[in-house]
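Same chain as my last thread, 90 residues:
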Amino acid sequence: MWQVAAVTVASGGDNIGVYVPVFAAAGATGISVYTAVFVVGVGVWCASARYLSTRPVIANALARWGHVLLPVVLIGIGLIILIDGGAFGL
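reply #2:
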């Protein structure tokens, strides 16, 4: 469980460029709300991942195909972001 939290914190370094301006403009209440939503969201993702990875069918599929599936999913998400953002229309 702590390993998941460490990876979440370590991989969030690029978000500093987003959070600093948002937190600078938000008051104490806004920062509290943003922080609470982030903590709850991470908890939901971690609980969902734990639940799904302990199902034998899903665990076996991830063990067998995870090294192929993860890059495909990440590239797909990146392409969707680029297309929706109009990056190819420049």
